């Protein structure tokens, strides 16, 4: 009940953003705008085009990086046949627990001294610190829940560790891997401080712009940015839902979450 | 071909082995049966022989297959087939692709590989099911597909971990004779863990009872 109420409220807020982005004249207390306009959407050159490309690039790069790292970590645990050490588990959560502002301030100083502040590389690095833990948390449980007999069967059929990973584990875990990637994208898109600090103010993302614009008077422009900002993660979740459904359309055991 | 276990014992590292050292020699075409109470380490023993032990277990003694030491090899190099309670077919592959997963590399070319798999499917009464989703097969069909998948990899020994226990009585006898017939036809040694005395009788090989509390393993 509470969940569905929140969902409806969220959807309404989203809808109002979309309406604002198409509004031209809208006087109080009208329920809908009196006139409509495409003008804010039709000019990507006004800024949102560049911000969209930057945000998208950051999200895809950071997520791919974090996903590769998470898979390497989990596969490393499998190959060593060892469980994760408690300190390592704590280390994953650390960036999520320490206040971002304190954490990033120090990182920023370090980057400035090293002379690598202000570029995309620095922002990707800082974002990955927050994206990786979410990807890791999202992927760890499904990875461990994979029936170990599948890889044992593959090994007994002569498949070495790489073939077991590529031909068995990754395809069977396609849905959780894409879900983890979608969560990573969403976290990356929402990052404000890493882009602001590490980008030295020179890198504009949809989020940094939306925050700046939210205090301005023009809700139409804010509506454009906020709509795009919400759309990117939704696109990620949509793909995470659709791709496995298409790839495994004839594989019943991989559809309902049931195993073999 | 022979599978030999010499003074083999397995246990969690640093503690007592799960069972006293085991000596066993399984001849080609023989199905030896391993019985004993639950928790004595029968499945762990099979894992040790197949190379699938978890971290933290130590193995002492020797496993020799056709004279070669197995314990120094990784699982994928041992050529020891493994059958579980469930078929454990790869859920993302078609039935045919499951069978061709372990098909020997010396069967070259798409046509030849497909023909080898089709032939195996026919032997197992699964003709025409190459493209099927393994999840849509019946229990008996899954069991036969799993056995053919294992055999197509051309194993030099076979480990069976309670392979028939989840099948209903009628099917159990059928799949059992199907599996044992293949072991005999291929002349490979097989070691089966089971709780069912009927399995042991049908295997008609040596039966080893892994005892508890320091009883020496006895061969009947």
Secondary structure layout plus pairing:
The complex is a heterodimer of chains A (260) and B (220).
Chain A: H1 2-22, E1 23-25, E2 35-36, H2 48-80, H3 86-97, H4 100-114, H5 120-145, H6 148-156, H7 161-172, H8 174-190, H9 193-198, H10 206-214, H11 219-247
Chain B: E1 3-12, E2 22-26, E3 31-35, H1 42-50, E4 57-65, E5 68-69, E6 80-83, H2 95-100, H3 110-123, H4 139-152, E7 157-161, H5 169-186, E8 190-193, H6 197-203, E9 207-209, E10 218-219
Parallel strand pairs in B: 3-8, 3-9, 6-7, 7-8
Antiparallel strand pairs in B: 1-2, 1-4, 4-5, 9-10
Helix pairs in contact in B: 4-5
Q: Explain this structure to me?
A:
The complex is a heterodimer of chains A (260) and B (220). In chain A, α1 crosses α11, α2 (48-80) crosses α8 (174-190) and α8 (174-190) packs antiparallel against α11. The mean pLDDT of chain A is 89. With 260 residues, chain A is an all-alpha fold. Chain A folds into two domains: 1-37; 47-254, MetI-like (MetI-like fold). Chain A is built from eleven helices and two strands, in the order αββαααααααααα. A two-stranded antiparallel ribbon of chain A has the order 1-2. By secondary structure, chain B is an alpha/beta fold. Chain B has two domains: 3-87 and 154-219, Rossmann fold; 93-138, no CATH class. Helices cover 31% and strands 22% of the residues of chain B. Chain B is built from six helices and ten strands; from the N terminus they run βββαβββαααβαβαββ. Chain B has helices at 42-50, 95-100, 110-123, 139-152, 169-186, 197-203, and strands at residues 3-12, 22-26, 31-35, 57-65, 68-69, 80-83, 157-161, 190-193, 207-209, 218-219. Chain A binds chain B through residues 80-82, 147, 149-150, 152-161, 167-168, 171-172, 174, 248, 250-254, 259-260, and chain B through 50-55, 74-82, 84, 86-92, 101-102, 133-136, 149-150, 153, 155. Chain B: Residues 3-219 form the ABC transporter domain.
């Amino acid at each position: 009940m509470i969940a569905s109420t929140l969902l409806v409220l969220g959807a309404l807020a989203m809808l109002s953003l979309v309406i604002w982005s198409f509004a031209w004249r809208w006087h109080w207390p009208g329920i809908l705008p009196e006139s409509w306009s495409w003008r804010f959407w039709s000019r990507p050159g006004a800024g949102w085009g560049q911000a969209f490309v930057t945000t998208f690039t950051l999200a895809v790069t950071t997520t791919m990086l974090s996903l590769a790292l998470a898979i390497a970590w989990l596969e490393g645990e499998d190959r060593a046949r060892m469980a994760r050490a408690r300190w390592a588990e704590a280390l994953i959560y650390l960036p999520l627990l320490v206040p971002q502002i304190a954490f990033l301030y120090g990182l920023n100083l370090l980057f400035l001294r090293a002379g690598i502040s202000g570029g995309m590389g620095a922002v990707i690095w800082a974002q990955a610190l927050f994206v990786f833990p979410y990807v890791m948390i999202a992927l760890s449980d499904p990875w461990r829940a994979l029936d170990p007999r599948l890889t044992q069967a593959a090994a007994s059929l002569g498949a070495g560790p790489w073939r077991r990973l590529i031909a068995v584990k990754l395809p069977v875990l396609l849905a959780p891997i894409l879900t983890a990637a979608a969560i990573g994208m969403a976290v990356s898109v929402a990052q404000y401080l890493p882009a602001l600090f590490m980008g030295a103010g020179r890198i504009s993302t949809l989020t940094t712009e939306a925050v700046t614009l939210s205090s301005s008077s023009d809700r139409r422009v804010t509506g454009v940015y906020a709509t795009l900002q919400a759309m990117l993660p939704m696109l990620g979740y949509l793909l995470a839902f659709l791709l496995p459904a298409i790839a495994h359309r004839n594989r019943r055991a991989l559809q309902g979450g049931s195993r073999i | 071909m022979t599978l030999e276990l010499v003074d083999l014992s397995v246990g969690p590292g640093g503690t007592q082995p799960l069972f006293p050292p085991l000596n066993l020699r399984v001849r080609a075409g023989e199905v030896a049966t391993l019985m004993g109470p639950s928790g004595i380490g029968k499945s762990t023993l099979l894992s040790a022989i197949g190379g699938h032990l978890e971290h933290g277990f130590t193995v002492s003694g020797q496993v020799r297959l056709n004279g070669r030491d197995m314990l120094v090899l990784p699982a994928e190099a041992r050529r020891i087939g493994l059958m579980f309670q469930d078929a454990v077919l790869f859920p993302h592959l078609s039935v045919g692709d499951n069978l061709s997963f372990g098909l020997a590399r010396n069967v070259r070319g798409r046509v030849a590989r497909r023909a080898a798999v089709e032939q195996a499917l026919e032997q197992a009464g699964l003709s025409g099911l190459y493209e099927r989703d393994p999840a849509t097969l019946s229990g008996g069909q899954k069991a036969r597909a799993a056995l053919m998948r294992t055999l197509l990899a051309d194993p030099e020994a076979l480990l069976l971990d309670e392979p028939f226990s989840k099948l209903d009585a009628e099917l159990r006898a059928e799949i059992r004779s199907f599996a044992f017939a293949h072991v005999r036809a291929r002349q490979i040694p097989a070691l089966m863990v089971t709780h069912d005395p009927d399995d042991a009788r049908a295997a008609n090989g040596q039966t080893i009872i892994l005892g508890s509390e320091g009883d020496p393993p006895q061969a009947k």
